[in-house]
Structure formats: structure tokens, C-alpha cells
Amino acid sequence: MASMNAYPAATMESTGFGFPRSCNVPNVDELEPLLPQHRWTGPDVKLLNDVRELAQRNTGLLFIVAGEAFFAIADAIVQTLQKVDPPLTTLQLMVIRMTIIYIGCMIYMFVAKIPNPLIGPKGVRILLLLRGIGGSIGLFGLYYSLRYLSLSDAVVLTFFVPTCTAISGAVFLGESFKLREAMAGFVSFAGVVLIARPPALFGDLGSTSDTTPSDADKAAAANRMKAVVVSLIGVLGNTLAYTLIRAIGKRAHAMHAMVSFSSIGMLLASAGIIITKTEIVIPTQSKRLVLLAMIGIFSFVAQILFTMGLQRETASRGTLALYSKIVFATILQWILFHTTPPCLSVVGTLMIVVSALYVVLTKEKPKPTLDQPVQHLTSREEVLEQGLAPSSNRA
């Protein structure tokens, strides 16, 4: 996590651009009648000033939204590479992405001279290890689901994570978990069912054919159900990762969590390739090599933007920006793959997004009473307050 040391304020002496001490600087009040007032108070200038002020107040939010756009592009590239012949396996894509992120993180940490770049600071190394395992499971769930689900469906299933993280935080970290959050979780689960459309509940509605389902339709439905199950396992992995990130708080730099996530993911994916004897597809076309490099680069840039944004935003507002990814995913799905989600998937997506936004927007803010002075946070409270701030290192 970036250092919290404040930078010294710039003065005329330090910048070297101020007037000399002996220079008689004219008073602004004396020049005011000479200034063209309409240039500074016109509607166009006022609009630009309002936009600039709005952007300055929401700089962190804009960084997070930009990071989500890069994440959506990386996921779209992954789905593209899984549809070409021969397709790259999920584990191989994980190794490539994690390797590029790991190299980028290590270069940054050595240049910035961040201590303990390999294993992190003492006291949180086990937590960082478990965070890397959970994040790797979450990434595997997302990449596997992209083989059989549309980009928007695979992305929206990850929106289950905030609700699961809230429950985990209440159980393990003592955070509050209210009835409205439980109801939102139930509605989100109903949305997941609409996206998965299991044949036991929906019969032939999950089939795209108007006739009797063929063997191919049945196989597609089975693969779809399997993808949803694996994606939900990935949600549990991300829940573990995010809960541990809350517990770590400011005891480790954000790059430590990224290094742990990328290195452990790289090792686990490589071990999975060896154990399952997965055939390694060696790309020879220059186009595929460029796309593979873009996955790692876009993922790394997304992580950096995410970190910068969450360092400037509160946890609740930062979480609100996470759901912009479904917008980018839907647009990319329409542009790149020329497909639109079925009506049931749209309804399920709206249920999950609205539920998640409801939890974020209805979050109560503690207000000091008149007879109770505002108190500074203790070190433990400050750690818990950071909440999702380090979740920029999410899977």
C-alpha cells in the first residue's frame, strides 16, 4: 500500500517560480476592474469548472471505473483465446497472466525500494499466503466460466462476492450484517439461478432451440451448469481473499498482496498443468502472442488503477464502482461477439446489480451525537475501516 506520508506544501521559495522578494506584486483588487469578468463567470466556464470540481471530488471513483474497464477488456481477450482452435486452457492462461503481473510487481517494488518484496512483512505472511490461494481459486473460477458462459454472465456471477464477504466479515471480523444485506443476498441468489437456468427448474427454457433438445443442447446445458458451479467456487475463493485483505489492512503494502496473488497463482496453475497432464498449447501466430501479452498488461494496469482509486475512496463508494464492469462486459460482448444475453440472464443480472447497489447505497454512516465528541480511531478500528481498500488486488 502506498505510503501515507504527506508531501510538503510547495512555496514560492521551493518552486522557484514565485516573484522575487523585492518585486512589487500588484494587488488583485487593483486589477479587478480591468479584468474581463464575463470570461470567468460565463455559463460555459462555470460548466467546465463544475465538471472539473466533480472530477476532482471523484478522482478515486474514476480510477476504479477505469480499472474495471481494463479488467473487462482482459476478460474479453481470455474468452476470445478460448474460442480459437486450438483453444488455450484455463490453467495456461492463468500462468501467462500471473507471470506478467508478477514481473511488473517485482520491477515496481525494487524501483520503489519497498521492503520485503518477496514474502511480505512479518506478522502477515501466512495471511498473504492464504490470500494468494483464495485469489487464485477465484481467478480459476472466472476463467473456467468464460469457456461456457457469456462474458456478461460470467462477470455478473462475481457480484456475489460482496454479499459473501459481508457475511464472512460478520462471522470472522465481527463486522455488522443487517437483515437488508441478507435479503439482498437472497435476491442475488435468485438472480444466479436465472442466469444458470438449471434444467431441473426451467426444463427446456435454457435451450436456444425451439425443438426437442438435441444431445448438443443437453451437453451445452450440462457445461453451463458446471461453469456456474465452478464460478461459485471461485466466489468462495475471492471471499476468502477479500476477508483476509480486510484483516491485513495497512500492515502490508498493496504490492505485497499482488505479489502473493500472482506468485501463488502461477505456482498453483503450473502444478495443475503437471498433475492433470494438460496439453500445453504453444501459440505460434503473432496475433495470439499479442493477445496473450495484452492479457497480462491490461490486468496489471487494471490492478494499478484499482489500487490508486481505492486509496482515494471509501470502501462503500469504491465497492459501488465495481459494478460498472457489467456495463463494459455487456458492451464488449455485443461488439466483439455480436451476441446479446437472453431475457432471463438480463433479469438475473439486474437482480444481482440492484441488490448489490442497494446494500452499498443504504449503508448507514455513524453520526456523532451532540453530547458525544468525535473520537479518533484506534489502530484496530483503523485497520477494519480500510475494509475493501486493499481489494484492489482482487482476483
TrEMBL record:
Source organism, top-level taxon: Eukaryota
One cellular component term from this protein's GO annotations in UniProt: membrane
Classification via InterPro entries: EamA_dom, EmrE-like
Keywords: Membrane, Transmembrane, Transmembrane helix
Location relative to the cell: Membrane
Residue stretches making up the EamA domain: 59-196, 233-360
Principal subcellular localization: membrane
PANTHER family xrefs: ACYL-MALONYL CONDENSING ENZYME-RELATED (PTHR22911), SOLUTE CARRIER FAMILY 35 MEMBER G1 (PTHR22911:SF6)
Protein name: EamA domain-containing protein
